[in-house]
Structures are given as C-alpha cells and as structure tokens.
Write a sequence for this structure.
C-alpha cells in the first residue's frame, strides 16, 4: 500500500549477512505492518554498514543520511537485532546511535513513535538480554515500545526465505508486533 494516508514504518536490523535469520524476522514483522495498512521500508545488511557514530563529526555518509531521513519521516519503527554474546549487535547499535542527529528536530529522537522490538539469537539467554537492551535504548530515545516484544531462539525456530517460520506462533507474534506499530502510528498521527 502506498498512499498519502498510509502510515510509514521503517524496519532497521539484520546483519551483514544477506537474508540472515534476523533480517527474515524483520521482514515478517514488517509484513504485519503492511497487513495493517502501513507503507514499509527496510534498512538492512550493507545499508547498515555505517562509519562509527561520532557526535562531533558533522559530515555523514550517504548511507547515514538515508538512515536518518528514513527515521525522521517514519511514523513507527521496527528494530530487529541479532544477539551476540548476550547483547545487541554493534551494527544495529551504531545505526541507533545515528538517531542522535534527530535531537534538534520538532520530534526529537523517536519521540511519539511506536517501536517494535525483536531479538534473534541462538539461545534464550542472548535472545532475552538483547530484547531488554533494545527496550532500554528505545526508552532512552523517547520511543514507545509496543506491548509485545519478540525474543526468538533460533536453536528452536528457523525462518525461511519466503516469509515463514518453522513455528507459526513465532511468525504470528512477529506479525502482531508489526501490526501494533502500525496501529499505534495511525492513532498518534490522527492526534498530531
């Protein structure tokens, strides 16, 4: 759906490995936002290969500018990070650090935006701790984490290349996260 009235949801995440399990999870969540009537865009893989964020540096790469502008124009965000050694990936964290460039905006950081959060890790410990870190970061950036967050253990669940998962309950939860972001975005846009 692409209309002037559709809310815009931006997905950020995955890894440098194209079509990774975390990128596949992101795409399922974004499909839930599309089902709710949203227009979506995904920033994944090589588009997240950004210079280390430096608040003192004013010049930005083309990829960093694209990320900043996508977040600036978004009504809602879905963030999916792989969990490495019990923490979110440096790739995703660095991308989120660039949200600092929105500090002087009328809507600073992620202010007023729904933020769907998902972690994907090989094991429950890393999946849960990564999700907790994502929630903390979303709060620090003034975002509104959705009531449902996703911690996915890829030792038990695998995502396929066509938008499915070996556990339909997990796929359903990811779609619900995307729907919650889209629904919240639509309701907050209506009141702005």
């Amino acid at each position: 759906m692409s209309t002037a009235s559709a809310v815009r949801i931006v997905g950020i995440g995955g890894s440098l490995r194209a079509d990774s399990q975390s990128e596949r999870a992101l795409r399922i969540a974004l499909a839930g936002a599309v089902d709710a009537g949203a227009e979506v865009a995904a920033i994944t893989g090589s588009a997240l290969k950004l210079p280390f964020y430096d608040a003192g540096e004013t010049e930005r790469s083309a990829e960093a500018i694209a990320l900043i502008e996508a977040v600036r124009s978004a009504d809602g965000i879905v963030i999916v990070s792989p969990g490495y050694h019990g923490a979110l990936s440096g790739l995703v964290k660095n991308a989120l650090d660039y949200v600092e460039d929105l500090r002087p905006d009328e809507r600073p950081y992620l202010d007023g935006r729904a933020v769907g959060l998902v972690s994907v890790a090989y094991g429950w410990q890393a999946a849960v701790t990564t999700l907790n870190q994502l929630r903390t970061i979303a709060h620090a950036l003034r975002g509104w984490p959705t009531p449902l967050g996703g911690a996915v253990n890829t030792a038990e669940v695998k995502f396929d290349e066509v938008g499915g998962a070996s556990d339909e309950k997990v796929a359903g939860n990811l779609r619900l996260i995307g729907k919650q972001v889209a629904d919240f975005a639509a309701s907050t846009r209506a009141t702005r």
